[in-house]
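Figure 2 data, in text form.
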Amino acid sequence: MKGHFLMRQEQRDRIDVLKCVRKKLMRLKEASVVLGVSYRQCRRIYRCYLDEGESGLIHRLIGRPSNRAIDPGPREAILRRYKQRYPDFGPTLAAEKLSLDGYKRIDHETLRQWLVKEGLWHKRRKRSGHRTWRQRRAHFGELVQMDGSIHRWFEGRADGDYCLMNMVDDATGVTMSLFDKEETTACAMMLLWEWIGRYGIPAALYTDGKNVYVPSQRSNLRAQESGTAVMTQFGRACPESDFRACQKLGIRIITAKSPQAKGRVERSNGTYQDRLVKELRLAGISDINSANKLLHGGFIDQLNQKFSVEPRERADFHRTALGYDLESIFCIEQERAITRDWIVRFENNCYQLKRQSKYGPASGKVLVRKYLNSELHFNYRGQDMNYEQLPQRPVPVQRQSGTKNKKKYTPPLDHPWRCSWKNRKRA
């Protein structure tokens, strides 16, 4: 309405103070203390009040377009591009993609306000915090969180859900991930192997209580009854004991009691579900191999460059992997029985080991290692044995039909075996 203007509460309070100055009830020096401004600023405000009245206290740019406002032409082009190519992208990711497409670089908050005004984006309710905030670890490699995220990564282009194995350093937020069909032991080993090849052996892993990482409750009860130690295949590669004594990696596994406890990797999973799904859609990818190529072709490096932080301490807690045979560590180990003919049965197949002598094996057990590339290695008494797969299971040799069976001996009635000990002593 013409002749009306909006005024904040702070400006209305200034009017009351300046009225007192005008009536000689207060001096300008005292008014500057009440208003919380300097004496010179108070003189400028009082001069505007005398010249223009109450409207002189209002900012000059109120009701005028901002000096930094974007022209309607580029604004409409940006919104049109957003509707065509990025309809469900968040403001932050959409602003990055629009700048890569050659449009004028705008702040994500500006784009968010445009989208809210057009009805293309809705405000999200902020949830109240429940868990206590935990400070990051001080050193890179001191604690690495590991988790699998089951999600419809390929949307409708592929059937079913797939798993993204994700590792995040607690101190820096550096991430590394790998696609697979499920959260399996082999996938966890491959991802950890890749992390070790790039950064080194971390000091500890923070995982959940799944059977991939730690034994189940039933297995622990059986181990307590039998008095033996039980360990998963992944835990065997990363034992909690001293790595020099067992010649393994020596990575300590810490089990989280809730998803909120390992919130760093859970938050990283949300970032992947927001950004990676849209990247796979734009690239038209619908299979695991192509998705892994996209991850390690620059997507993970972009995430680390954008979201990683510097650790509080410079020391790196990663250890070198030199001297470790990672191929024999990251494998599936099982103990199998070996027959007198040097035959071992594994996964419903029979394998003939090369004889060390014409006699049978001195030990009745052999250690079978199945590598991640499906190679088999039979380790007998600390030595890998040559073997060949048999076409079928060996059949035990049967007796010929011409041979007569030996008749069972039956002692006569007067035989000493049939007499009691006392009768034999009398006789």
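Caption note: The longest strand covers residues 144-151.
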